[in-house]
Amino acid sequence: MRALRYALDEAFLSLWRGRQSGALSTATIAVALFVLGAFLIATSNLERLGREWNNSAELSVYLADTITDPQRAAIDKTLSGASVVASRQYLSKGDALARFKKTFADLSATVDGLGGNPLPASYEVRLKGGAETGVDLLLAEIRQLPGVADIRYDREWLKRLSAAISMLRGVGLALGTLLTIAAALTVANVVRLGLYARRDELDIMQLVGAPAVYIHGPFVMEGTLQGGVGATVALAVLGAVYVGLKGRYLIPLASAINLSSVTFLPLEISLLLLAGGMLVGCVGGLIAAMGRS
Q: For residues 222 and 283, what is the distance between their CA atoms, to the nearest angstrom?
């Protein structure tokens, strides 16, 4: 306990004496964790978007204009008998045109100028979640039915979204790792400056047989404090940016892509970032302390 108090006191004194150089290492850690935290916010919300889209995935079966009643009855029977179908709704050509004009009122005159109804009749099918194999079988069966002009399947977009999330996560981790290594080396160099400034005092302590924890402990603690402060700054700036963008940009964006809400980092992830910043600083301080041994 006495060694810990001594390390804290000496670390605070060293930070105050070298506050200008210490600010550089603290800022480096803050930037590294800010970038990593921003990528974590983006990927966590995109993953939740994927889950919400997956739970509300739809299948649109567009019918040919020349379809006959028996052909439409066969399509309806196939959809009603499929175990992966939660519900279905038939939209005639007239219903499709009315919905288009209601959704895109500015384009109503353009459609009317075509001299006819260009929109096909269709089935809007809501699928059950977690039934990929069954959906693939249903798609293969429907495509073979006469009268089917085209099929639009939402989960094909989900696969692309999942690939984009994986790529984004990989970029974030790679960039965060590089910045974290740079932050640890910066902390090590800053702590080493303080160590050189006290080299005569440390030599005397070694000569009189002072324990290693009293010699190296303050420098490890100094790095840990720098990491903790840097992580706190990163989380504070992330929170400020999130609050600043939420009302003006994030909420409208979430509404546009059918995401229930855009959320900040969970508490456990925030605590992990704080612990990670302290660990990076601790490693930097340890590198500097061990480099003198």
A: 11
